[in-house]
């Protein structure tokens, strides 16, 4: 994989992950509350789920690109 492709992947993942974190409230309103997240992460677990997922997208892509 070329350097430019890797750079574009990291930038895209950062944009998508940051958007998930920033707009988590709108995502929960659009998609609905996640039953399992509310059960295992406590009250407000759906919002925490989107923060965790956005973070995983960013970190996972960086790890994939640097591997």
What features would you highlight for this structure?
single chain; 67 residues; 4 helices; mainly alpha
Which secondary structure elements does this structure contain, and how are they paired or packed?
Elements: H1 3-22, H2 24-31, H3 35-41, H4 45-66
Helix pairs in contact: 1-4, 2-4, 3-4
Commentary on this structure:
The structure is a single chain. This protein has 67 residues and is mostly helical. The protein has one domain. Helices cover 85% and strands 0% of the residues. The chain is built from 4 helices and no strands. The longest helix is centred in the last third of the chain and has 22 residues.
* Strand residue content: under 5%
> What's the number of structural domains?
1
Oligomer designation: single chain
- Main β-sheet, in a few words? none
Distance between the termini: 11 Å
The global form is: elongated
Helical proportion? over 70%
Radius of gyration of CA atoms, rounded to a whole number: 14 Å
**Element pattern in H and E:** HHHH
**Which spans of ≥5 residues are poorly predicted at pLDDT below 50?**
none
């Amino acid at each position: 994989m070329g350097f430019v492709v890797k750079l574009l992947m990291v930038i895209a993942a950062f944009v998508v992950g940051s958007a998930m974190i920033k707009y988590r409230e709108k995502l929960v309103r659009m998609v609905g509350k996640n039953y399992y997240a509310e059960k295992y992460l406590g009250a407000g677990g759906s919002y925490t789920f989107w923060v965790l997922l956005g973070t995983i997208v960013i970190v996972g892509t960086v790890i994939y690109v640097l591997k």
